[in-house]
Description:
alpha+beta; 2 helices
Amino acid sequence: MRARGFTLVEVMVALAVVAVALPALLISLYQQADDTGYLRDKAIAHGVAVNKLAEMRLTVAASRSLQPGRTSGQTRMAERDWFWWIDTQPAPGGIDQFYRTEIRVALDQARRDQPLYSLVAYMSGDLQTEADVVTNNDDNGDGDNGDGGDGGTGGSSGDDVTGEGTGDGTPGLNTGSVPPPENLDGP
């Protein structure tokens, strides 16, 4: 009677299959670990870029000026040093007082042209405040002052982007009071 078991050929084929499958599995695991690290670094680089944009907006609001140009620096986040480059140029299309700001972040200073994360934002260079508009307003509603303010009493409000108001006495989008809400419960 014949004994049950594997032959030498069957054992050798099984070992060959394991020898081929195991390295492929290990390579896949290493690649997944590398991808996880890359995504972590990219998320942190995004945080650095957003922080620099917020810092830039606060600086522009405090100094009330936005100038085109380039700047760079280094910051520390998540126990690592990050290098950033900010490039602010007039926006394409010839829009006056509108700037395109690009913030690039990398782990190495040599990777300026191949950043880990790049953020583009558009910022207005027209930093006229509401107080500036009110002091320049002639308050007679004829809109002849051309400052795009509230147009005086009865004049229309200025456009939020261009700062130009019609001043023809028609109500603007930003003027008037909000009507009371309708009674939804019925009479």
